[in-house]
Amino acid sequence: MKNLVNIVNSCFDLDFWPSYFKISTTIVISKSNKTLYNSPKVFRPIVLLNTLGKLIERVIGKRLQFYVVSNSFTHQSQLSGLKFKSTLDTGVALTYFIHMGWVKNLSTSFLVFDISQFFPLLNLYLLSLILEKAGFNFYIVQFFSNYLGERKTYYF
Length: 156
Prior knowledge:
This protein is of the alpha+beta class. The protein contains five helices and three strands, in the order αββααααβ. The longest helix is centred in the middle third of the chain and has 20 residues, at 51-70. The two termini are 34 Å apart.
């Protein structure tokens, strides 16, 4: 575990994410029990990443989340993906917002969407500006610029 922490620290210190970890392989498999395979919806892409890279990314993610939460960089209604937050917390918050709307004789609605496909389209320059404005250390900003840039995937 100590060696893994040393690798993570070195990546941050050098503002560098090895290109080896930026390469993924996408394998497209067909969903079972389909009568026709003439639509993209009947196939499922599976993205494979380097196992060590994924482990290091997990450590980096936990470290980043700790930094973000401990410095109050997230809005108090941000629940998804944060440690010690759950679906139950989200349900309680949503119920509270709906009831507050009812008290004010308002109709309440909400929109839910998945942003996982947003990241390949992320503007790295804008992300750097946001991280700087949020007060992140210069080296962390530089690391994420390198981490997110020049990614490649191969399809099979």
